[in-house]
TrEMBL record:
Organism encoding this protein: Dimorphilus gyrociliatus
Highest taxon above the source species: Eukaryota
N-terminal signal peptide: none
Keywords from the named record: Oxidoreductase
InterPro entries: NAD(P)-bd_dom_sf, SDR_fam
Record-given protein name: Uncharacterized protein
Length: 193
């Protein structure tokens, strides 16, 4: 089983040594690369759980700037999670005849260290009011882990999950043309490494 959980929000690092935007690498290209590497090695991978975010629905496909170097900071996270969700959707189709399940799971809003890079840039009077409200609504880490644990422990099949149940894929996953294009261009880009 592979759980692609590592993620970063508002990364202070701009560019990786390979010439990619850092936030896209951690949240999208890294999980795609690792997943494909392990699938190719045929080590008997049965389940891949990609930890995404409901913020993906505010993202957009970024074909004209695949490495993300021109991408505005405020859209990087949502775009990277859109891409990860789209990848999960596509790879289900690619491996439909194989004995492996792929899940995209949204853990909900959780109080973790994910927001560690927000304050220096975004802190304003608006945030001072909104932040305590968000913290009141947010889940504790143990609660946030439940949907991921559900995907691991239960006999779940490929699909999109949240609140410890199967859910509809976000609307952007209806755009098969864009999903196919992103998948193709991503695999082609990563084949250089
Ligand atoms: N918290 C939320 O409200 C929320 C909502 C939706 C989705 N998510 C997703 O949930 C996942 C877990 O995040 P979290 O909320 O638990 O945040 P977190 O406490 O910041 O945990 C993120 C994890 O990712 C690791 N990580 C970050 N950059 C890395 C890198 N370059 N290489 C290897 N590991 C790296 C971190 O390791 P270090 O601590 O060693 O840096 C940490 O273990 C992420 O994919 C996030 O996008 C979270």
């Amino acid at each position: 089983m592979l759980i692609n959980n590592a993620g970063v929000f508002n990364s202070p690092i701009n560019q990786t040594s390979e010439g990619f935007q850092h936030e896209l690498v951690v949240n999208y290209f890294g999980p795609v690369f690792l997943t494909n590497l392990l699938l190719k090695r045929e080590i008997g991978l049965k389940k891949v759980v990609n930890v995404t975010s409901s913020l993906a629905k505010y993202g957009s496909f970024f074909f004209d700037d695949l490495k993300g170097l021109q991408m505005e900071k405020k859209v990087r996270y949502r775009n990277s999670k859109l891409a990860l969700t789209a990848f999960t959707n596509k790879i289900i189709e690619e491996y439909k005849d194989k004995d492996v399940e792929f899940m995209a799971v949204h853990p909900g809003l959780v109080v973790t260290k994910l927001g560690r890079n927000i304050l220096p840039n975004w802190f304003s009077w608006v945030e001072i009011i909104i932040l305590p409200l968000l913290l009141l609504l947010a889940k504790l880490p143990i609660e946030g882990a439940q949907s991921i644990l559900y995907c691991i422990a239960e006999d779940c099949s490929s699909g999109y999950y949240g609140d410890s149940r199967r859910k509809e894929w976000p609307q952007f996953c209806d755009n098969k043309e864009a999903i196919n294009k992103l998948y193709k261009e991503t695999i082609s880009l990563l084949s250089n490494f």
